[in-house]
Amino acid sequence: MHPSESNFLAGQRLMVGFDGTDFNDDLEFLIGTLQVGGLILFSRNVDTPDQIRHLCRDCQSFAASCGLPPLFIAIDQEGGQVARLRAPFTQFPGNPAMTHPDDAAHFARVTAGELTGVGINMDMAPVLDVAPEGVESVMAGRAFGSDPGWVAAMGATMIDHFQRRGIMAVAKHFPGIGRTVLDSHLALPDLDIDAKTLADSDLVPFQAAIHGRVAGIMLSHIRYAGIDPVWPASLSPAVTADLLRGRMGYQGVVMTDDLDMGAIKPNLTIDTTIGQIMIADVDIALICHKGPDIQAACEKIRKALVADRGLRRMGVRSVERILRLKRRFLAGPWALKYENPRG
């Protein structure tokens, strides 16, 4: 495999955060040298609509000048507790306050228009976690509710209205964290749930999202003992390869939650984490903070692609899924160059 091909195949599987509100040397390195496939924006990156528009435009222009496909540019804009974009962007009370599918449709229509207007093309929403009654769920303030059918209907409506307006929706946090009371931002929660309860409740909204051709699915940093007693969902072949892709039939883009979170980073090296992601058939590693882990992750993927034919085949399939999604939502002449990432 040619070095330039391995660099591209590695970089496209990273979605990364950065510091600053303008195009800078770090972004030039991430895009031009590492060839990352996506960026994620946080409050530290956003100020005014004009500033965000210029930032996104400059990043996309630089990627194009490097001969690369367009970038995923993502943000967490759920409304309510998690909304990186503040006024003058429209503010919503959040999923728990919604009482009719029209509320979900209105949120998605307005938010999609505002994101498109500033150059953001992916929203890390909707939250499809089911928060059962009687559980002090960490997701109580962000979930649509406790009824799986209701969560599925609201999520499917949101996905439909986002995606028909060109915004890629990412359903989260598979296979569902509504039952957890420990915050995975701080530590690794364990959830012992039987397969029938999971299928009858937590997986119902995700199955609806798959039926609605959701652009992406984000994995949780929760360890589900009944599925995999060793690895959290984000690093588990049993969760992605067997359950999500095998049994549920999802062949779209799968990404981790932020690998900088407390459930992952204090306990595992970036080499171990990335190695598990590749084995598990996860497409995108999400690393939300500037630091050496981003370059280390890219190098780990690149070396594995060169050294292991099996991982290379899986890696090529991952990048094919990523490019297929980019062609679907970010169409343009760039696609002709990357019809087949095998080179």
From TrEMBL:
InterPro entries: GH, Glyco_hydro_3_AS, Glyco_hydro_3_N, Glyco_hydro_3_N_sf, NagZ_Beta-hexosaminidase. Keywords: Glycosidase, Hydrolase. It is an enzyme of class 3 (hydrolase). It comes from Desulfosarcina alkanivorans. Belongs to the glycosyl hydrolase 3 family. The keyword Hydrolase applies. One of its GO terms (molecular function) is beta-N-acetylhexosaminidase activity. This is beta-N-acetylhexosaminidase. GO terms for biological process: carbohydrate metabolic process; peptidoglycan turnover. Residues 17-309 form the Glycoside hydrolase family 3 N-terminal domain. It comes from the Bacteria.
